[in-house]
Design goal:
Chain A: This is ABC-type xenobiotic transporter. The complex is a heterodimer. By secondary structure, chain A is an alpha/beta fold. Chain A has 11 helices and 14 strands. Chain A has a 6-stranded mixed beta sheet, sandwiched between helices. Chain A starts with a strand and ends in a 31-residue tail after the last helix. The longest helix of chain B is centred in the middle third of the chain and has 28 residues. Chain B is elongated, with a radius of gyration of 19 Å. The chains are: A alpha/beta, B mainly alpha.
Chain lengths: ~350, ~270
């Protein structure tokens, strides 16, 4: 039986850019799928197709048991969408925004009013409830946007980069809210560029690049794919990088990566703490002074790098702009080999 | 019906916004008031209408033109508002809700109609102050304003389509205004079209905008002495012509705008 969110072979092209190049998704009821990828990977386009905002060129999508392409109106009754732009009316107060959304979900006036008050309380916006939203901070606006998506407690939620641009404290707060929501049984599809966020919130992660899902699994499964643990060394002097690299090569089970500006060297290893001690002794005997050394489990950043061949944060991208997600023309789709 | 209630919810939302951005209404008033004052006092004595060169006759002749021009500016308001909603992601929010299709646009154009009404009231008061008078019964005068408002409502649907078609609110404002100048000037709004060269005169006589102006002049009793009504059908039957044009504009542009809305992407 397909999950609460199901997609098969979704394709969407904008001009000659294939924003979605055959995306398959299956999110079981009550779980969270993290759609992880850089700007331009196709995450937003996927969300827009699943939330009836965009019609895919081909493929199939079923949300909450309803065919998205055949019965979009029916789907809209069962979903909540919270975007990366905090889509609230800035001249309306928080309360007015939520009441308006309630009315548009066909709630009677009184019910919409009561629900708005409840959500304002729940999202710690009660004090600011009667101020226009344009006086809100970034974090407050996101919370209001999220509250707006939750007015009818939809069984299926979509959040497109819910914490992009938020400071760490606000991000943490929003994570708590999202966790509460999911513990109540809501099925959630969440897109993010933050590996930490997917790691933190999602039961399963789908890594998206160039409009297709290139890997999926739990965070642990994905980490296991990149190999096990690794030794990370920060040498004190830049001049020692070459020698240290040579030493690590002797112990490593794979390629040593070097970050020149931070003087950090990383190499995959097996052998745990015992091996670490050996590495330290060897470095010491060669007279290499070290600032930091440790045994690290792979982060999702490592996963991303090993899967896509490029880092998760792609600097040349257009930023948090919706158009960026269509993918710049110079990023040709290429097949990645997953080991 | 959810189509009606959704439209009302959106209209209410836009009216609350307008109340919180009063400068938009004020700026919307400055231009027509300026036109009233400038045309009355600068051109008033030198423009001949019908067989009259009296300032008072021109003053009365002029007001229907300025009223009509003012209601067409609703185009820019609707366009800019909808482009702004697209830009801010609100249209995405609305499109993801189980709303009646078209309600976002209908609600916006309804709110614009309220704003246009307010603008017309203020403008009519200013017009009365500078000496404009009507010479028909009250029902006819009201009918004149109704014809004006219907035209304004029709034009806000053109604005809605423009707003959905451009990328920024700024583009919607200028895109909503720029073509209004030739439209309103190649018409009978400010001068007696009988005095135009033949080819312009034909355009002016069939201009949808002219029909409304002519209808108002008849309903207000503001046709100057010795004015010869042109033979063109819309000028002979201006009230009907105005209604037909407005309904036609609504039918065409509403259809196009709603279709565009359904596929709109920010």
């Amino acid at each position: 039986m397909p999950g609460a969110i199901y997609a098969e072979g979704l394709v969407k092209t904008f001009g000659d850019v294939r924003a979605l190049d055959g995306v398959d998704l299956d999110v079981p009821e009550g779980t969270v799928l993290g759609l992880l990828g850089p700007n331009g990977a196709g995450k937003t386009t996927a969300v827009r197709c699943l939330t009836t905002l965009l019609r895919p060129d081909s493929g199939k999508a079923v949300v909450a048991g309803v065919d998205v392409l055949r019965q979009p109106d029916q789907v809209r009754r069962s979903i909540g969408l919270s975007g990366q732009f905090a889509a609230v009316d800035e001249y309306l107060t928080g309360r007015e925004n939520l009441q308006m959304v309630g009315r548009l979900y066909q709630m009677p006036g009184r019910a919409a009013k009561a629900r708005a008050a409840e959500l304002l309380e729940q999202f710690h916006l009660a004090d600011a409830a009667d101020r226009p939203a344009k006086t809100y901070s970034g974090g407050m606006r996101r919370r209001l946007d999220l509250a707006a998506a939750l007015v009818v407690s939809p069984p299926v939620m979509f959040m497109d980069e819910p914490t992009t641009g938020l400071d760490p404290r606000n991000r943490q707060q929003l994570w708590e809210v999202i966790k509460q929501l999911v513990s109540g049984g809501t099925t959630l599809l969440l897109t993010t560029q933050y590996l930490e966020e997917a790691d933190h919130l999602a039961h399963e992660i789908a890594v998206v690049d160039h409009g297709r899902v290139i890997a999926r699994g739990t965070s642990d499964q994905l980490k296991a794919r990149t190999g096990g643990e690794r030794v990370e060394v920060v040498v004190h002097e830049r001049g020692h990088i070459a020698t240290a690299s040579q030493v690590l090569r002797g112990f490593g089970k794979g390629e040593t990566t070097v970050e020149d500006h931070t003087r950090k060297l990383t190499v995959p290893v097996t052998g745990g703490a015992k091996l670490l001690a050996e590495v330290i002794r060897e470095l010491d005997s060669r007279g290499i002074e070290i600032d930091d050394i440790g045994l690290r489990r792979p982060t999702l950043d490592d996963v991303f790098l090993s899967l896509t061949g490029h880092a998760a944060e792609t600097e040349e991208q257009t930023g948090a702009d919706g158009e960026g997600d269509a993918g710049p023309k110079d990023r040709r789709p290429k097949k990645e080999t997953v080991k | 019906m959810s189509a009606v209630s959704d439209s009302l919810v959106i209209a209410q939302r836009n009216l609350i916004r307008m109340g919180r951005i009063p400068e938009m209404i004020i700026f919307g008033l400055i231009q027509p008031i300026m036109f009233v004052v400038l045309f009355t006092y600068v051109f008033g004595g030198s423009i001949q209408v019908g067989s009259s060169s009296s300032t008072q006759d021109y003053r009365e002749f002029l007001m229907a033109g300025i009223f009509a021009q003012t209601v067409t500016f609703a185009t820019a308001g609707a366009g800019a508002g909808i482009a702004d909603d697209m830009h801010k992601g609100l249209i995405d929010r609305f499109r993801s809700l189980p709303m009646a299709r078209g309600a976002v646009l209908t609600g916006r154009t309804m709110a614009d109609l309220v704003q246009t009404t307010l603008t017309l009231v203020v403008l009519a008061v200013v017009a009365l102050i500078v000496g404009w008078r009507t010479h028909e019964n009250f029902a006819k005068v009201l009918a004149g304003f109704a014809v004006l408002l219907l035209l304004g409502y029709a034009f806000s649907w053109i604005g809605a389509l423009i707003g959905l078609s451009v990328r920024t609110p700024e583009a919607a404002t200028s895109g909503g205004l720029i073509w209004l100048f030739p439209l309103t000037f190649i018409s009978n709004a400010f001068v007696d079209a009988n005095q135009m060269p033949a080819f312009l005169r034909h355009i002016a006589e069939w201009n949808p905008f002219s029909a409304t102006v002519q209808a108002c002049r008849e309903l207000f009793g503001n046709l100057p002495p010795g004015f010869k009504t042109p033979d063109a059908w819309p000028m002979q039957h201006p009230v009907w012509a105005s209604l037909i044009w407005s309904v036609l504009i609504i039918a065409v542009f509403r259809t196009l705008a709603v279709r565009k809305y359904r596929s709109a992407t920010a």
